[in-house]
Request: fold
Amino acid sequence: MKKLLGTATLAAALTLGLNAQAQDQEKVLIGTEGAYPPFNYIDSDGELAGFDVEIAEALCDAANFNCEFVVQDWDGIIPGLLAKKYDAIIASMSITEERKEVVDFTDKYYQTPAKFVKPEDMDLEIPEDIDEAAEVLDGMTIGVQRATIHENFLKDNFPNVDLSLYASQEEANLDLTNGRVDLVMADSVVLLEGFLNQDGGADYEFVGPDYSEKEWHGEGVGIAVRPGEDELLEAFNDAIAEIRENGTYEEINDKYFDFDAYGS
Amino acid sequence: MNLQLVVDSLPQLLDGLGLTLQITILSIFLGLVVAVPAALMRLSPNPLLRWPAHGYIFYFRGTPLLVQLFLIYYGGGQFREELDALGLWTYFREAYFCAVLTLTLNTGAYTAEILRGSIQAVPHGEVEAARACGMSGWLLYRRIILPKAFRLALPAYSNEVIFLFQATSLVSIITLLDLTGVARSIVARTFAVYEIYIAAGLIYLACSYGILFVFKRMEKRLMAHLRPEERRQAQKAADPAQENLPV
Reply:
């Protein structure tokens, strides 16, 4: 037993030494899900790919970390972090009060905005200002999924529109194509991937400004780290600011989306 | 339990109940209008009349109401241009119309089947007696068979009305804010699942018993001549004004 322990210590010492020799980089393990396209998924070559993954790589470069990815199912992703299987979660995790009780979050690294979609042949401009927009949309019928932040956002800010509430976003989109509603509102990526890029959505387009109001749309998506790891947290925050500034973020963003995923 | 929330939500829930009752009453009435000819066609010896009615009843009894609702609401949207050309799209555009149409056709099929059974259950002796008096065709149906059949159908029909009343909760899926639709919206906002659904359930319950009560009274009235003799005598004693009326 003693001998075994000795060997282990030796091995650990060797590993540490080798690491320090190889590069002066801190090794950071990143947990991700790999099942949430286009943000993180396993591509046809079996490699991790997606917006989260590319952002994570850019952040690690900016922070001078030597990063490795660990794939972990969604329901075990926070326990895995707490069990030190990895040091940070970069997996499109929304910052919520509940999660904040268990883990610490960096600043957001993206927040896909909510947007309206209209038929291409419809003549409509929606002004930036919410109150002005509410006047323009007065009396229109808007399809929205029941029990979502979008329903609440519309109810509170657009009191004079008729809301049609659907069980799923697909049904709202269907009634837009049927002409029963004038517009639909949902998360821009959900609309883009689930509707506009599909066959049925060819004649439809985004209209109006990006909406990401903290009160209704939350705080966005951040990187989760174990509580108390302030150094790592700060390093990521600095890295996020850096890639936003030096254009790396934009470069990655434009590969996936035709709007700024960072939100406002 | 947040009782204050239930009290606060009550006006909204009762608004929803208004729509639920409206849809129920309209569909029941129109369904009956559909059901009587459908039942008669179903019993017709002429296959050109019998088979369409048979197909209609077979389809609407054999498929889930939810599927029928989706078919008419979203399926209707797929034929927008054709319906537009017929001038029908203005109706199909409205979820309200689609809901009433679906429920009417659904309850019409069930009611037709109930009526068919009770028409066939009209005792032969009564029909023969009517024929012996010289009645035939429409007169026979109007005077003897249908009145008897309606009485026989009443208990089963009250079930169908209760079922339809409860089935209207499905219309919340096609955007209508009926009692269930309103309840779902309130729950989505407040997360008070128990409070709101229990309140909505109690409102449904009260209405269901209201419907049952009405049917019980109708049954009592329409079946008065079938009640046992001694009870009728007791009633007569209690109400002497009726004593001189012919039995």
In short: The interface with chain A takes residues 74, 76-78, 80, 93, 95, 173, 175, 177, 181, 184-185, 187-189 of chain B (CB under 8 Å).
